Description:
By secondary structure, the chain is an alpha+beta fold. It has five helices and five strands.
Amino acid sequence: MAQPKSPKPEKKAPKLPRLPSNARITKRPLLRPPIPSPYASSASPKIVYISAKTPFISAVKRVRKLLELIDKRTVGQVELGDGRKGEKTLRSLEEDSQASGKEPEEVILKATNRAIEKALGLGVFFQGQGDVRVRLRTGSVGAVDDIVVDENKTQRKQTKGKSKKEKGQGHMADADGNAEEHYDDVNEKMKNIEADDVDLPETQIRKLSVLEIGISLK
């Protein structure tokens, strides 16, 4: 009997190269699709983006409002009638929903990085509610950052490096022993300055952790 294969470990994202001292990173906001109307059909996901500054109670009210609209759209206007007729109607609706095999429509909370802690707090809160089901999903997303080069800083470093190199050559002419060590030190600094002149890409992509919390009615 063949043994089941163990799952392969996920590959870690490679570390971003260290930028030279004359470059800095400008972060762009994350790209997000337009938020659909709360009254849209189940084909449009109902997403609530959570940031580190999102008010807790405000997020709870938004989720509850979306769940209420989902419930109204799913059930629709049904006349239950009285007595046994109403019970049969409710039972048939439950059987139809179970027979379809479709997952219930969710309200999805999305958070990245520092906002994950607040999203987890919301997930714990809804787990304590008896009428909803909570599911957690993790993942990652790529964010684009701009690399900006400070041209003035590059010119100042080049001018300073050249003056140090000329000074080191003068010391070498005066004394052989200490001057050679000083000249090697200046050469090392010049290499670092030349490294700042390397052509850099205009952008770089970094990975962010993402937490999704799906909340649906039972």
